[in-house]
Amino acid sequence: MDYVKAFLVGGIICALVQILMEKTKLMPGRIMVLLVVSGAILGCIGLYQPFVEWAGAGASVPLLGFGNALWKGVMEGVGKDGLLGVFKGGFTAGSAGICGALVFGYLASLVFKPKMK
């Protein structure tokens, strides 16, 4: 049942973003930034973590979850390194996901031979 819940929650988030893309004139990059910032704000006010615990990967995998992870990293960095942690914490928290995206994107490009259009 956890898989079904994660699938439904992630699907609802994606459907809402798709509606936002089609009904507004916002560019996809701005919508992505809006999602990351929204996840950080929801994490800051304490609403996102209970949502992640309930929804699982359906809430932690989309860009909202990335914003929440950045927020948690910044808070840990501030607790550990003070003001310098504001800058270091986000990089530390987001580095594994970004590195994974780069490595797997590169491996996929080797397998599928992308072509420029």
UniProtKB/TrEMBL annotation:
Pfam families: SpoVAC_SpoVAEB. Keywords: Membrane, Transmembrane, Transmembrane helix. InterPro entries: Spore_V_AE, SpoVA. It comes from the Bacteria. The chain crosses the membrane at residues 6-21, 33-51, 91-112. This is Stage V sporulation protein AE. The gene is spoVAE.
